[in-house]
Design brief:
Length: about 350
């Protein structure tokens, strides 16, 4: 089976690493000459709106999936005429726009921060008056890793901020005084069967994920699964979806969804019976889902800007290096380390060692 992937970054690369043993081949559509997934399959180097290349991709593959959500809706609509596309155009339309996303949470009775649509500075002033400060202003689309957002703490922060974010459609959210951030990775098959990985505790630095630790018997697991199930059913979703939540007042508030494999699920490569990458491919290909059970205690640490010397990373016991083969650049995710240990105490000790390497 040949899978077409829109986007040729590290997520595409890791999908191919998981799918190749299943006998799958891959073609990636990505305009970047140095797309790091290209090492694992065919690279169609073209813009996402290039209909000739989209048609070529559709002709060559059995189905198309995505490794990022900011794909133009027209691209999905065009491809869907010729080849099955998972997840659906509707799932992407909602997940790529924070207003649609939060409105869906609200409609499904899933708690979220207070939010308002912002189309002008006047909208922002009015929304700040009703939601209050602190608050977070985010662009509705194209934001990632903390980009396209600003925390507003005092009235001076609000002045001219709509223009500062580019005078584009935005969302204002109440600031959530969270005690923690967790994510749930779910996979839903074509027949509706759904499986969940254990909740993951996430730590961010300047909006970029730094550390994920898989939990055991988290008290909010059932609640997170309930909220996520509502979204998956509503969208008749097929594939892996990630749900990010704030832990607050002993409950959860939904932050956002990602209609794809997710950075906070990277630990599953060594830490679960079947990884998020393999399960995404199984789901979109109509194959039986794999077990989401955890194997040992796991964590993932991102390498941002630079991968430490390979020999030092792999010298750490229980440590698995994932190098994306990308050029090193400040603020860019260029690799990660997965730790899988027999018990939590060992895991915590090994996390400290990887953190020390990152700080060197
Ligand atoms: P996002 O791009 O929406 O995932 O935001 C990136 C990070 O900013 C989150 O993981 C949080 O650490 C922080 N953040 C985003 N929205 C809020 C909010 N409404 N209240 C508090 N912190 C937030």
């Amino acid at each position: 089976m040949k899978i077409g992937v829109i986007g040729g970054g590290q997520l595409g690369r890791m999908l191919a690493l998981a799918g190749t043993p299943l006998g799958m081949n891959f073609a990636f559509l990505d305009p970047a000459p140095d797309a790091c997934a290209a090492a694992l399959g065919e690279h169609l180097r073209a813009d996402y709106g290039d209909q000739d290349h989209l048609r070529q991709l559709a002709d060559e593959v059995d189905l198309v999936t995505f490794e990022f959500e900011s794909v133009p809706a027209e691209t999905v609509a065009f491809l869907s005429q010729f080849v099955p596309v998972y997840p659906s155009a509707e799932a992407l339309r909602i997940a790529r726009d924070r207003w649609f996303e939060k409105s869906m949470f609200k409609d499904l009775g899933i708690p979220t921060p207070a939010f308002a649509d912002i189309q002008s500075q006047a909208d922002l002033d009015a929304a700040v008056a009703s939601i209050g400060l602190p608050a977070v202003l985010k662009t509705r689309t194209l934001g990632y890793d903390g980009k396209g957002q600003k925390v507003l703490r005092k009235p001076e922060d609000v002045v001219d901020t709509f223009a500062e974010l580019g005078s584009v459609s935005c969302l204002l959210e109440g600031f959530v005084p969270f005690t923690g951030e967790v994510s749930l990775i779910a996979v839903r098959a074509r027949d509706g069967e759904t499986r969940f990985y254990p909740l993951v505790h996430n730590t961010h630095d300047s909006g970029i994920l730094k550390l994920s630790v898989a939990s055991t018997d988290h008290p909010l697991q059932a609640l997170a699964e309930d909220y996520s199930s509502r979204v998956l059913k509503q969208l008749n979703y097929v594939g892996v979806m990630a749900f990010e939540f704030f832990e607050v007042d002993g409950g959860l508030k939904a932050n956002e969804i990602a209609p794809r494999v997710h950075n906070s699920g990277h630990w599953t490569t060594e830490g679960a019976e079947c990884s998020q990458f393999e399960n995404h491919l199984r789901a979109v290909a109509g194959l039986p889902l794999g077990s989401t059970a955890k194997v040992g205690e796991s964590a993932m640490l991102n390498f941002i800007g630079v991968v430490p010397p390979v020999e030092k990373v792999i010298a750490i016991e229980d440590c698995h290096l994932h190098h994306y083969g990308k050029a090193f650049k400040a603020g860019r995710k260029v690799g990660h380390a997965n730790l899988r240990c027999a018990d939590m105490a060992t895991l915590q000790a090994q996390i400290v060692k990887v953190e020390a390497l990152i700080a060197e």
